[in-house]
Amino acid sequence: MAQSPRLPAPLLAFRISIADNVPSGKSPPARIAPPSATVSRKGPTMATIDKAVEIAAQAHAGVKDKQGQPYLLHPIRVMMGVSGEAAQIVAVLHDVVEDTPLTFDEVAAVGFSDEVLEALRLVTHEKEVPYADYVIACKANPIARQVKMSDLRDNSSLSRLLLRPDRLVSDSQRMQKYLLSYRFLQDELSEADYCRLMVDLKA
């Protein structure tokens, strides 16, 4: 039986203040210690999962998701749904550049491997890129594919399912988009069928 992914040390000491009530969206600017001059993405001092969790905790501090829960719990769950340290690093950081003031260059400067940085770029959805094109690019990279599938599973879970009466159509379309994307990543849909269905969905 496969073992569950190791829980990084920073999580054991991380404390979430339920008094914070910052709405979802862009996080407050994160403070990340500047990388040591000796850090090398290919050397023995390469940044690890512990550093990735620290960055995510700082970047998402005080932010709530649409259910009012600490947003950090989402990337943590995504991280726990993948295997391998590189995938775990990408998973816990997957929304840092997309949803917080941190830039990709700032994250890269910490010292993550080229393998991690390549996958992290792919799972970071740039708003001007059509969602289907973004998912297709993720599928081409084994780490990005694994992380995106875990992300979609968490976003589609019943505990996070959001169907608001005043936004029923858009919320339903979002869930259909997630389902189609997951089926494509699982090889249950061809790329042509996926693109056609996404166009029909206007996603």
UniProtKB/TrEMBL annotation:
<dbReference type="GO" id="GO:0008893">
    <property type="term" value="F:guanosine-3',5'-bis(diphosphate) 3'-diphosphatase activity"/>
</dbReference>
<protein>
    <recommendedName>
        <fullName>GTP pyrophosphokinase</fullName>
    </recommendedName>
</protein>
<dbReference type="InterPro" id="IPR052194">
    <property type="entry name" value="MESH1"/>
</dbReference>
